[in-house]
Amino acid sequence: MSERPRTTLLRNGDVHSPADPFATAMVVEGGHIAWVGSEGAADSFADGVDEVIDLQGALVTPAFTDAHVHTTATGLALTGLDLSGAATLGEALERVRAYAAARPGDRILLGHGWDAARWPEGRPPSRAELDAAADGRPLYLTRVDVHSAVVTTALLDLVPNARDLRGFTPDGPLTDDAHHAVRSTAHAAVTPAQRTEAQRAALARAVSLGIGSVHECAGPLISGEDDLTGLLRLAAEEPGPRVVGYWAEAFTSVNQLAKIRELGAHGAAGDLFVDGSLGSHTACLHEPYADAPGATGTAHLDADTVAAHVAACTEAGVQAGFHAIGDAALTTVVTGVRAAAEKVGLDRVRAARHRVEHAEMLTPEHIAAFAESALTASVQPAFDAAWGGDDGMYAARLGRERARTLNPYAAMLRAGVPLALGSDSPVTPLDPWGTIRAAAFHRTPEHRVSVRAAFTAHTRGGWRAIGRDDAGVLVPGAPADYAVWEAGDLVVQVPDARVANWSTDPRSGTPGLPELVPGGQLPRCVRTVVAGRTVYAA
User: Fold this and answer.
1) Do 162 and 145 contact (CB within 8 A), yes or no?
2) Which residues, at least 6 apart from 40, have a Cβ–Cβ distance to it below 8 Å?
3) Model pLDDT, residue 502
4) Across the chain, how many H-helices and E-strands are there?
5) 398-416 pLDDT tens trace
6) What residue stretches are annotated with the Amidohydrolase domain (predicted)?
7) Main-chain dihedrals φ then ψ at residue 310, nearest 5 degrees
8) Given 161, 205, 209, 333, which residue has the most CB atoms within 10 angstroms?
């Protein structure tokens, strides 16, 4: 006979559950929620459970899902050379110098996170400056958006054909094919042991922040098959967050999609690039960049390729998806999806819950098309926090008027577009409560959503994005994926100035959430549980 599932009673806290907005207790049996209710009713369970946890007033919520992560790159940034905190070009070069001196045995030095738009010098390091800082060694440094990189001469010498590829510049950041070529060589230098160490570090950071699931966005131009299969194997063997894998390769027939199942991936989606990024001037636009006259970015896929991919995935029962940021790229996506729907049927396309990553430069017509095709928008509110506003990078690239149209979350929700929130880590850090705050306090006020809506998109939204409507919420029968938090007063926050910005009135019947005003302290995770198993305890 099988062993009886272990039961746990959590009591004397606040349990965020639509089943009972005043819940203070919860029973977990095995890997699922068994009961949610009040403190008085909890007494009847106390003698029949294996463990009682006194929450001492702590908040219990569903664990977060980060819907867009690059796990190995995140771990390498956590354990290696991270330039995201460098305030000046000089400081960045000094960090390179110190890192190179500390790693004499590395065949290729790897780093991430520089952002010249934030430096007073206003420019990336030159190749000569990098050569000097790295003492003539091969060095690969990705920009914060990971769509361009600066490299040393020694690394270019290992990839001699890079100088003949699209995106090569003699002394500036590499983009497009040139970038992909040097990236492949740089990543090949990472040993299996280094890769596993980086993946463990990233997954450990995720659960320490109350993240119970991550969507890994892998692909041939990003990380490689061994990286994805190694990560999925690690996640299956060791305690940590659930990992849902995506493989970003375009397919034209149902037979080709056998590769997705062989890799253990959930879908042929994620960073299947239709374009690049705004920071690197590679997002594909209908009108030129404001700070690069004549430049409209780079198109990697056309509408026919999008249509063929979506049709094949739909027929195979596999989720499709794309990376699209610029308005021209998003036009390509919606045109292709509509063409696929004409071939295989709109209802089948809608049922497949295909997804689009980032989806930043949406027009009202794009939003309507997303809603029509039930496309999930996998979005990163921290992008707006980092680069939005009238004086941010977006405004520099596009001009203030176009920049104000980016990331229109409120309009997307009004139209019925499903949202799943994530970080695109290491582009922006794993930080779920910070992500929710960024959505609720969007730099463009008309794009703000309520804390509750953003919270739902960062918990239940990630599960719905993989076709699971029974998870990401604390109700009986749902998976026992939850986090316990030290938090202040719980409130009901909304972004619309026409109503009260926050309320603690219990008569609303709405479960409260931590107050997330800018500058305030965010909740601290003290426990993360996945499938009923504690994977992190402070």
Assistant:
1) no
2) none
3) 45
4) 20, 24
5) 999 999 999 999 999 999 9
6) 51-536
7) -65, -40
8) 333
Architecture of domain 5-61+472-486+522-535: Roll (2.30)
Only one residue has tokens 């899902």, namely: 65
Residue 488 pLDDT class (50, 70, 90 cuts): confident
Helix extents (H) in 209-273: 225-237, 258-263
Structural contact between residues 28 and 7, judged by C-beta atoms closer than 8 angstroms? yes
Cα separation of 422 and 68, whole Å? 5
**Amino acid present at 516:** L
Q: Which helix (H) or strand (E) holds 216?
A: strand 211-218
**Phi, psi of 378, deg, nearest 5:** -90, 105
| Sheet-wide strand order for 211-218 | 64-69, 211-218, 242-247, 267-268, 319-324, 355-358, 376-379, 419-421
Provide the residue type at 458 as one letter.
Answer: H
Percent helix / strand / coil, the chain, rounded to 5: 40, 20, 40
The residues, any chain, with a CB within 8 Å of residue 63's CB and separated by 6 or more, are 210, 211, 212, 213, 241, 459, 481, 482, 483, 528, 529, 530
Q: Which among 135, 187, 122, 179 is positioned nearest to 156, based on CA atoms? A: 179
Under 8 Å between Cβ of 268 and 248:
yes
> In sequence order, what are the residues at sequence separation of 6 or more whose Cβ sits closer than 8 angstroms to the Cβ of residue 255?
none
Q: How many CA atoms lie within 13 A of 115 on its CB side?
A: 20
CA 64 – CA 385 distance, rounded (Å): 20
| Token digits of residue 8 | 């746990």
CA quadruple 515, 520, 524, 530: dihedral positive or negative?
A: positive
Amino acid found at 340: A
Query: Which string of DSSP letters, residue by residue, matches 452-490?
Result: HHHHHHHTHHHHHTTT-SS-SS-STTSB--EEEEE---E
Residue length of the chain: 538
Question: Helix H segments across 254-355?
Answer: 258-263, 303-316, 327-344, 346-352
d(CA 456, CA 464): 10
Look up the CATH architecture of domain 71-187.
Answer: Roll (3.10)
Place of tokens 């002394």: 171
Residue spans per domain, the chain: 5-61+472-486+522-535, 71-187, 191-464
Q: Which CATH architecture has domain 191-464?
A: Alpha-Beta Barrel (3.20)
Q: How many CB atoms lie within 10 A of CB 481?
A: 30
Q: Which amino acid is at 55?
A: L
Q: What are 228-258's pLDDT values in tens digits?
A: 999 999 999 999 999 999 999 999 999 999 9
Rounded to whole angstroms, how far apart are CA atoms 246 and 271? 8
Q: Look at the block and give the residue holding tokens 């707006």.
A: 384
